[in-house]
Amino acid sequence: MTIHSVVIQKLLTTNSHISRQTVTHHFKQFTYGIRNKQAILDSDKTLICLRNALNFITCLSRDPSSSFLFINTNPLFQPIIDEMTLKVTTFNPERVSNLWKMRGFLTNSFSPKKFRSRNKKLVFGPTRLPDCVVVFDTERKSSILSEAQTLGIPIVGLVDSSTPLEFYKKVTYPIPANDSVQFVYLVCNMITKCLMLEKKKKEGEKRIGRKATSREEVKQIEESTGESKVESANEVLVIPYDNLAPLSGDIADMKQLLDKLVVVKFNGALGKNMGFNGPKSLIEVKNGSTSLDLTVNQIQSLNSKYGCNVPLLLINSRTTHDDVLKVLEKYSSSKIDIHSFRQGDQIQQELSFSEGGEDEWYSSDHGAQFLSLMSSGTLDVLLSQGKEYALVVNPDNVAAVVDPQILNHLAQNSVEYCMELEDFTSNPTKHSVKKFKFIDTRNLWVDLRAIKRLVDTNALKLGYLSMLKLFEKAIGIMIPQSRFLPLNSTSDLLLFQSDLYSFTEGVLIRNDARTTPTNPSIDLGPEFEKVSDFQSRFKTIPSIIRLDSLEVTGDVWFGADITLKGRVRIAADPGVKLEIPDGVVLKNEEIKDPRDI
């Protein structure tokens, strides 16, 4: 029996799934069905919402000055809540449950005050606002909900099928369940364990900090784990791809893992720099397939192979949205859920390097567009469907595909933010001015629950997604070159369309016949800049398996079945048309005239 099954069974024993006879329209997303005129709640969705709430409370508790206010009016729940607050030593005024009808209880809480409650006992009100309000019987807490919403205080609350929409909308982290004594005890017990565990982690970190007092000791620890740190404005732990744990290979485990994933692809870049009138993702890459086709085919293959459901979200700009919608019609019969969004004209299309030291990497951020999508309600829908991670794909990277091995590492180690990095020396660029240690490939893996926490607490503003310090655990993974193949020019197009690469199930595979670990360096002149000129100047794409470098300038035309080896430079003089004949083999040659062939 899996851990998930054990937890679901525990929920069922608390009767949390048995709700009221009335089911409001907004609550139907949590309802499994109707039995004996009573609503039956979906325990899987209850568990998802409960996890989100506990994760939020745990993150808040990491701040030593944080406080929680537990609100309750049911006398059956009070001993349970008292026991919980006693263990975790959180602020809980005596008989706070009797104060819920007092107007201004929160909004007037900045000064000390005392008053008499309904049972005539003297009670002291709080002198500062809590960081979170936990409500156990939401339906009877209209004033508390209104005040907390006015002050911007996050609310965690139990809701059932009869909770009105006006109350439901004010709860930041709703937990759909029947508020039985058993379920309240379970929730309080889990809150207690989460807070106590976080307290133990802090104590453990302090002990470790006292032990590792010298840089030599820290260096020895890093070398023993085989992991390296990048020192920059935002430090991040970098893990070699080869150090990731292998997958089990079990189809059921793979399905459960992939069902947690959603792929987000930015699709706003135009192909103007390549003379292509349309989205760059619609440029033919290999055998009539575009980069968008490769992405769809790869996800569709995973869905068919493992029986999972990995959806694809496309974020288009104003100039690409209509063209993409027309292309999506051909995927209507595919086994993949594709959703297209229009995000305006703000997607960054140019690559740029950071201006930091040599230990920094190039980084370009899609945080504003991604956060805008998550704030529009899409995030809540994805979480309700059981999605926990998003792969945010670089629009220029043709080799950006779902890697279950990376996803498994994130899930096993509770990683909230992961960048795919590449060693700069393995992929140098002629546009670089400085030497950098890593290149950020702009492929991101993000925990959706962490995004939910940051959005709800206003900790994450538009454009701040690259601020690693906002995430509890952020890492970088040093990926192989096979996962980073950007399409920025027709020189890259020659690389993909040659015999060096083939593709299977949407994944580009490099020819094993090439023994050199790096790809050849290709530089085509301005005569090849446009896609149409590139296609017309090659009868067929040359064989480049054993090519080291190719430089072409001037009015050069290639015939069919040409083979290029070693270092080849072809330079036609101004005003001279230089034609490379069919079937020729050029090896370590410099061609300036037809007589040189």
TrEMBL record:
GO biological process, alphabetically ordered: translation; UDP-alpha-D-glucose metabolic process
Catalytic activity field: alpha-D-glucose 1-phosphate + UTP + H(+) = UDP-alpha-D-glucose + diphosphate
GO cellular component: ribosome
GO molecular function, one term: structural constituent of ribosome
Annotated stretches, region: Disordered: 205-226
EC number: 2.7.7.9
Pfam families found in the cross-reference section: Ribosomal_S2, UDPGP
InterPro entries: Nucleotide-diphossugar_trans, Ribosomal_uS2, Ribosomal_uS2_flav_dom_sf, UDPGP_fam, UDPGP_trans
Key words of the record: Nucleotidyltransferase, Transferase
Superkingdom of source: Eukaryota
Signal peptide residues on this chain, from the entry's feature table: none
Recorded family membership: Belongs to the universal ribosomal protein uS2 family. Belongs to the UDPGP type 1 family.
PANTHER family: PTHR43511
Protein's name according to its UniProt entry: UTP--glucose-1-phosphate uridylyltransferase
Gene source species: Theobroma cacao
Lineage of the species this protein comes from: Eukaryota, Viridiplantae, Streptophyta, Embryophyta, Tracheophyta
